[in-house]
């Protein structure tokens, strides 16, 4: 048994990614991008590169009142946005989706969404008005048009029946019809990455990449039509379309086995979508805390930390939240007691300073790997797009709340990107929901 005992250094070394490894990952991802855009090779691509049918960013002339529905996790938002060019006024309300609904029938899910949407409109006194709605639906979909999105697979803990293979816009419309609300006009469905890109482009016209690092991880970007072999629609101006990469599935074809650890494999083995979204499982907030917990459990079992006296909470999958990683890493020099507070939440009272330092080191290593993997992805896009200057719009709880994530990304993207291509990271202030309303507003503008 002794030769199987792993020290802290052994474990963390597997999470340390050099620039050479990151450049190798970037080259593999670029090949996946090209494969996904090629109609002859798309069927063999793990990264599907779905055209979104969104062809333009806001130009500052959009006007009017728009609704947005933002569904991307266990909560969803209903928004009402008044647009006056670059100025806007927005109200929103967050609704919870119970676990039973997340894992129930598709009809029950959309009935729940429709009820909350209508309740909010009644509260605002807008239930009698015909209003255009942008729908952010943050799961892998094949889009057949701006108002037609076929769900490919559920992620992020959803397993609702009778939705995969169906048009989610039609399911929303049917649910609204069942409530007698035909006045809501769904004129665009977008992914949260597209919503983020549009939201940031409303503030800065150089935004051409949308990135989510939250419960899940994904990116989209503006691609020239000439590079999109899978595009069979209108060839007119503008000669571009936003591509939803769905890069969370990168590595599903076993191409990332050289960087995946035993902990990544264990998490996948015990997940709802085994063998799927392997890149996302190394990065996102749904899994980051669980990776830390599993490392702690292994080291504790070998007497390396906590004297093998772990609480029941620490032994329970997913009890160590990813937000705890952010809390712990915001504790500079152990002066703010964040580490001790997290350990108390986990049922660990008597802990040495050495143990607290080890826990922080594990958190730092896991989150740094996450930031570096995302950075390799962003650098791949910047090098592919070859623009002199690009704003990257970013949203998601990991990026928003982790104290070092942005700095880690800025430094690493710069190291991995051709020096001719400059970039800035821009936090999406109002999330992907406002972006969905902006897609609806741009659609309304261009249809005139």
Automatic annotation (TrEMBL):
Lineage of the species this protein comes from: Eukaryota, Metazoa, Ecdysozoa, Arthropoda, Chelicerata
Keywords of this entry: ATP-binding, Glycolysis, Kinase, Nucleotide-binding, Transferase
Catalytic reactions of this protein: D-fructose + ATP = D-fructose 6-phosphate + ADP + H(+); D-glucose + ATP = D-glucose 6-phosphate + ADP + H(+); a D-hexose + ATP = a D-hexose 6-phosphate + ADP + H(+); D-mannose + ATP = D-mannose 6-phosphate + ADP + H(+)
InterPro entries, alphabetized: ATPase_NBD (IPR043129), Hexokinase (IPR001312), Hexokinase_BS (IPR019807), Hexokinase_C (IPR022673), Hexokinase_N (IPR022672)
Annotated transmembrane regions: none
Swiss-Prot/TrEMBL GO biological process terms: glucose metabolic process; glycolytic process; intracellular glucose homeostasis
Homology family: Belongs to the hexokinase family.
SUPFAM superfamilies: Actin-like ATPase domain
Annotated GO MF terms: ATP binding; D-glucose binding; fructokinase activity; glucokinase activity; mannokinase activity
Recorded metabolic or biological pathway in which this protein acts: Carbohydrate degradation; glycolysis; D-glyceraldehyde 3-phosphate and glycerone phosphate from D-glucose: step 1/4; Carbohydrate metabolism; hexose metabolism
PROSITE patterns per the UniProt record, alphabetical: HEXOKINASE_1, HEXOKINASE_2
Gene expressing this chain: Hk1
Protein name: Phosphotransferase
């Amino acid at each position: 048994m002794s030769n199987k005992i792993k020290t802290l250094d052994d474990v963390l070394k597997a999470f340390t990614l050099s620039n050479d490894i990151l450049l190798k990952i970037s080259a593999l991802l670029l090949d996946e991008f090209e494969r996904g855009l090629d109609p002859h090779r798309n069927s063999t691509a793990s990264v599907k590169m779905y055209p979104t049918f969104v062809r333009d960013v806001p130009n500052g002339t959009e006007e009017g009142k728009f609704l947005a529905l933002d569904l991307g996790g266990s909560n969803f938002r209903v928004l009402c946005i008044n647009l006056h060019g670059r100025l806007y006024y927005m109200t929103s309300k967050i609704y919870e989706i119970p676990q039973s609904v997340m894992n129930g029938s598709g009809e029950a899910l959309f009935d729940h969404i429709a009820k909350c949407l209508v309740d909010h409109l009644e509260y605002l006194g807008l239930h009698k008005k015909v209003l255009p709605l942008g729908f952010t639906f943050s799961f892998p979909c094949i889009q057949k048009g701006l108002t037609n999105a076929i769900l490919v697979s559920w992620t992020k803990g959803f397993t609702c029946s009778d939705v995969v293979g169906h048009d989610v816009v039609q399911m929303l419309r049917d649910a609204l019809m069942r409530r007698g609300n035909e006045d809501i006009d769904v004129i665009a469905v977008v992914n949260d990455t597209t919503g983020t890109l549009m939201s940031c482009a409303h503030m800065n016209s150089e935004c051409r990449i949308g990135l989510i690092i939250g419960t899940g991880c994904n990116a989209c970007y503006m691609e020239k039509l000439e590079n999109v072999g899978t595009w069979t629609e209108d060839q007119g101006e503008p000669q571009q379309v936003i591509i939803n990469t769905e890069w969370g599935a990168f590595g599903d074809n076993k191409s990332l086995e050289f960087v995946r650890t035993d902990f990544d494999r264990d998490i996948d083995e015990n997940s709802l979508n085994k063998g799927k979204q392997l890149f996302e499982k190394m990065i996102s907030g749904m899994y980051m805390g669980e990776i830390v917990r599993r490392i702690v459990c292994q080291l504790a079992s070998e007497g390396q930390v906590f004297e093998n006296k772990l609480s029941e909470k620490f032994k329970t999958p997913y009890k160590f939240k990813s937000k705890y990683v952010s809390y712990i890493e915001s504790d500079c020099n152990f002066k703010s007691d964040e580490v001790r507070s997290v350990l108390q939440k986990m049922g660990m009272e008597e802990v040495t300073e050495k143990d607290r330092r080890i826990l922080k080191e594990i958190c730092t290593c896991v989150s740094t790997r996450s930031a570096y993997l995302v950075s390799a992805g962003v650098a791949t896009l910047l090098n592919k797009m070859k623009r002199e200057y690009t704003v990257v719009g970013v949203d998601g709880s990991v990026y928003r709340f982790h104290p070092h994530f942005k700095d880690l990304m800025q430094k690493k993207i710069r190291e991995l990107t051709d020096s001719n291509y400059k970039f800035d990271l821009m936090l999406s202030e109002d999330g992907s929901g406002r972006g969905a309303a902006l897609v609806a507003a741009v659609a309304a503008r261009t249809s005139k």
